[in-house]
Amino acid sequence: MKVDRWLYLMLAPGILYFVLFKYFPMWGVFLAFKDYQPFLGFWGSKWVGLRHFERFFSDPSFWILFRNTFYIASYNLIFYFPLPILIALMLNEVRNELFKRLAQTFVYVPHFFSWVVISGLTYILLTTEGGIVNELIQYGGGEKINFLLNKDWFRTIITSQIIWKETGWGTIIFLAALSGVDPSLYEASRIDGAGRWRQLIHITLPAIRSTIIILLILRLGNFLELGFEQIYLMLNAMNREVGETFDTYIYTNGIQQGLFSYTTAVGLFNSSIGLVLIVTANAIAKRFGEEGVY
Q1: CA distance 241 to 61
Q2: Is the residue at 2 inside a domain?
Q3: Torsion of CA 84, 90, 92, 96, to 10 degrees
Q4: Positive or negative CA dihedral for 22, 259, 72, 227?
Q5: CB-based contacts of 71: which residues, under 8 Å, 6+ apart?
Q6: CA-based radius of gyration for the chain
Q7: Cα–Cα distance measured from residue 60 to residue 264, given in angstroms and rounded to the nearest whole number
Q8: Is the residue at 14 inside a domain?
Q9: Phi, psi angles (nearest 5°) of residue 47
Q10: Domain count, the chain
């Protein structure tokens, strides 16, 4: 440790972050098995076993929440996850460095916008009262569509927001992986007569395959964790039927109604699904000869 003290010093902020915000709060899962009363305290509250889980699983809203969360998570996995790979591959083929850097900057910038800003922009674009999209539809001879109140459009809007905000940021890891590909492989392939498409299939994609698999496994670990802010800001009375997820349900029942133990059980169930998915996906990856996460 003395020899590598500077490396350990660089690791310290990351380790401290995980200890304070990831491992230490795990003690709170005990609340899921207690009837927590603030005036009795954490240890003084009565143990109730699995009562909160039984209540949640027997609640008619359970399947609605599970369905909504599963659908939105599946949309994100199917439509969002491949896009950073595609953008990274496209940027990797650009030979004009100035254009490449400008393109990277433009696709990175939305990541730094808050979900409040994203929701505001969405409202400006899609509202029926002067929204740009509806004005164009009307100009083309069509009728205005109330995107924000129509539940059929909710999941599409949510997925589109994530794609616009996070696709550019997701390319960073893939571009870093692509930068490590040995240039001599491309030179040898060109000598053998391989074009860009052949190089992509036989050199580029195999080189980043392990990175894709690891990120896919990690993505599955957070499969049902959609984030609270985005969904909450886009919810309204008309689309709540298809938009209410575990995260928003935990907020409305835990923070607003004070059902701390009950919503801790809901959150623990949500995390348990992620744990099962990540362990299963990792085992499948290792069976097929990949490195996996661990």
Answers
A1: 10
A2: no
A3: -130
A4: negative
A5: 155, 242
A6: 24
A7: 18
A8: no
A9: -75, 135
A10: 1
* Global pTM value: 0.87
Is 22 contained in some domain? no
Per the listing, tokens 């005990």 go with 30
Which residue type does 50 have?
A: L
What does the pLDDT profile of the chain (294 residues) look like in tens digits? 889 999 999 999 999 999 999 898 888 888 899 998 888 887 888 999 999 999 999 998 999 999 999 999 999 999 999 999 999 999 988 888 899 889 988 999 999 999 999 999 999 999 988 889 999 998 888 889 999 999 999 999 999 999 999 999 999 999 988 888 888 888 888 888 888 888 888 888 998 899 999 999 988 888 888 888 999 999 998 999 999 999 999 999 988 888 899 999 999 999 899 899 999 999 998 888 888 888
Q: Distances from the Cα of 103 to the Cαs of 99, 108, 116, 215, 245, in angstroms?
A: 6, 9, 25, 23, 34
Beta bridge partners of 35: 46
The residue written with tokens 């490195």 in the block is: 291
Angle between helix 82-92 and helix 154-179 axes, rounded to 10 deg? 40
Residue span of the structural domain in which 81 resides = 31-287
In a domain, 173, yes or no: yes
CATH number of the domain encompassing residue 72:
1.10.3720.10
Widest CA span in the chain = 77
